[in-house]
UniProtKB/TrEMBL annotation:
Signal peptide (residue range): none
Taxonomy, superkingdom: Bacteria
Transmembrane segments: 12-32, 44-70, 82-104, 124-144
Identification of the protein by name: Transporter
Primary localization class, coarse: membrane
Assigned protein family: Belongs to the autoinducer-2 exporter (AI-2E) (TC 2.A.86) family.
């Protein structure tokens, strides 16, 4: 039991590190995009994007409020708003389908397909909580699976299966095999 708890703790630590790295990458994408668009206080909005990245679904929308308000107050009008919304779409798609699955694969050893499909399925059945808990659950599941496979591999390499000793009875007189000549 202790070993499973240790593995679970390590997996959750790796997931948290992956989430932190994902948040930093999302913040960098926001900072770069907002700076290119000329949105005021781009570093502040990027910082908020990193923090809100930990909240599934709602975090992306909360990230969007600040840059949209700054763009409208700056006087960029609907064109600036459309560019910020386009940046939001690009950042969310890149993060959801490329960055986050690749980071989870490298740090928490979660396959890319699982990090895309499982949150969608769990979100369908358990809504907010399914999406919130899907990534850490995947990290724990695949860590325990890897540990189990490694344990089996070690067990198989240390155990040798030998056939039982069979006594061979010899006949007193051996009969040579029949030879058929054509």
């Amino acid at each position: 039991m202790r070993q499973q708890l240790r593995i679970t703790g390590r997996a959750l630590k790796r997931w948290f590190l992956a989430q932190c790295l994902d948040s930093l990458i999302v913040a960098a994408m926001w900072w770069l995009g907002l700076a290119l668009l000329g949105v005021p206080w781009a570093p502040l909005w990027a910082f908020f994007a990193a923090i809100f990245q930990f909240i599934p679904h709602i975090g992306g929308v909360l990230t969007l409020i600040g840059p949209l308000g700054a763009t409208l107050l700056e006087g960029n009008g609907w064109e600036g708003t459309a560019y910020v919304l386009g940046l939001y779409a690009v950042v969310m798609v890149l993060d959801g389908f490329i960055v986050q699955p690749m980071i989870l694969k490298r740090t928490a050893r979660v396959p890319v397909w699982a990090s895309i499909v499982v949150p969608l399925v769990m979100g369908y059945f358990f809504q907010f909580w399914g999406i919130l808990l899907s990534a850490p659950m995947l990290a724990v599941f695949f860590a325990l699976k890897a540990h189990r496979q490694e344990s089996r591999r070690q067990l198989q390499s240390s155990v040798q299966i030998l056939p039982p000793a069979v006594k061979v009875h010899r006949r007193a007189r051996e009969v040579p095999p029949a030879v058929i000549e054509s």
